[in-house]
Design a protein that fits this description.
By secondary structure, the chain is an alpha+beta fold. Helix content is about 20%, strand content about 30%.
């Protein structure tokens, strides 16, 4: 496969006329530091992406910034012998989409240490539907169970239950047989 020299990307940042959101052709050598180049297949849309897309959000730490705090795709270049070309991978965290260009791009360059191999039975689309919020919720449920929580030991309170992580946690816990008490600070969603 021939990799192009640029990547079509959604950027946010300051311009002479104010804050701008635009689609650009970003040179691959401007995608940031990293030893792996990924052809992005999917990226989720997260709360942080919304914040990064506005000047008032104040979380974008590079300018311009390619948003997208998570991504899934195929490795097209790698200088790490443990990361093979063609491998399906997921990346999120590590300031991706905040201080390092993210997944709202055809290509993303990241550190190999930030990558997780695509789990068997999962594809890029499904991984990004679960996204960072789903992953965070799963880590939380896993930590609770490792600490001894079991279905039938009493109700589990999920705060922020109408948000991304909270809503996924409510579903996961309910499917695992827990009695779930959902809490929200938003009267309109109670």
């Amino acid at each position: 496969m021939n990799t192009p020299n640029t990547s079509r990307a959604f950027t946010v940042g300051k311009t002479e006329s104010g804050w701008a959101r635009k689609i650009v052709e970003m040179p691959l050598d401007k995608l940031g530091d990293g030893d792996v180049l990924i052809q992005v297949e999917f990226s989720g849309i997260n709360f942080k992406d919304g914040l990064a897309s506005t000047e008032a959000g104040r979380i974008a730490r590079i300018d311009p910034l390619i948003g997208g705090v998570d991504l899934a795709g195929k490795v097209v270049e790698s200088s790490n012998s443990n990361i093979k070309i063609g491998a399906s991978v997921i990346a999120h965290g590590y300031d991706i989409g905040v201080a390092h260009h993210g997944g709202f791009s055809q290509y993303a360059r990241v550190q190999s240490a930030w990558l997780v191999p695509m789990p068997k039975g999962l594809d890029a689309r499904t991984a990004m539907m679960i996204g960072t919020a789903g992953y965070t919720a799963a880590l939380s449920v896993d930590a609770l169970e490792k600490a001894g929580l079991k279905p039938g030991t009493g109700p589990v309170l999920v705060t922020g239950a109408t948000g991304g992580v909270g809503s996924v946690a409510v579903g996961m816990l309910a499917l695992r047989g827990y009695e779930v008490v959902a809490s929200t600070g938003k009267p309109e969603t109670a």
